[in-house]
Design brief:
Largest sheet: none
Structural class: mainly alpha
Number of helices: 17
Order of helices and strands: HHHHHHHHHHHHHHHHH
Number of strands: 0
Amino acid sequence: MNRTIFLISILAFCSCNKTTNTKKDPVKEEVVKEVKENPIQKPLQLTLKEANALASLPLACLQVEYPNKLNQTLGGKENLGEPKELHPTFYGCFDWHSSVHGHWSLVKLLKRFPNLEKGKEARAKLLQNISKANIEIEVAYFADKHNTSFERTYGWAWVLKLAEELHTWDDPLAKELEGNMKPLTDLIVQKYIDFLPKLNYPIRVGEHTNTAFGLSFAWDYAVRLKNEQLKKSIETRARAFYKNDQGCPIGWEPSGYDFLSPCLEEIDLMRRVLKQEEFNEWITLFMPQLIARDFDLEVGKVSDRTDGKLVHLDGLNFSRAWVLYGLAKQYKEYDHLFYVANTHISYSLPNLVGDSYEGGHWLGSFAIYALDNTAK
């Protein structure tokens, strides 16, 4: 193992096991010094071994109905139903959006690693869940007047990410699943197009409703599927919301329940939407400290991984990493950010497999996306 990666792993272990003792730890200080003097200039990679381990997380929950958080608005007792009745495709993994990106995780891993250890089981569950009949019921749920905004825009974004992944997977199963998904995919695309002109102000939080995150994934879908109407709608709102932003207060982050960085998610969107010269001018005003070769960012620290909100900070470490990887790969002057991204992943990755359900039902998707983002 590369010595620097090994040292980062030790640093992550030290961080995970930090006590309230304020006495300086000479071993940890030496590790920090060596890592800073020898920063990694390449991103970490998703290996088959890690893929097999991470696949176990969605496989363990995609068809587990309880516990379940429905996030449902009830118009009357006729709206009551078991999770699997209401959402026959996306009923597992505690909540709807986690189920969506759990399905995405399996598609991504099967696509990257055709010899995935439990590939046969994964394919069978995808085919069983994403059927035409099930998707019809999912679509009908949005027709209820009390739930037209259901999962806006976080769950919507993951639907389009799943659809994009299926579209780019050269496999007969993918073509069948993409066809089955199409009515829901088309519905979500139209929901974006209808909703965005009505949104006068962006939502700048570190959780599900973050506008920049929702637009980033939708942008990827629009570009890949050549949907010019959706792409134009996203660009128009991104410019209106963020083009004049300056001095993002990254020092205020994270908030206690964040799994997204409001500052970095905005960067992730604008690096997609703006051309190079325009982006360089924008980021110089928005977050000029990023260009410094010694830029650093402390990882989000989790005190209790059985707390469904506090464990969000593991997700923050992964989402920060994928933003920093994306920026460093697109613009070489930011290649020092590989080090910052790697330290974030190294802190949280060892905690996933065997973790409590509060984190295990969703964090694997974030880890996979962060690690996979290095290969694009």
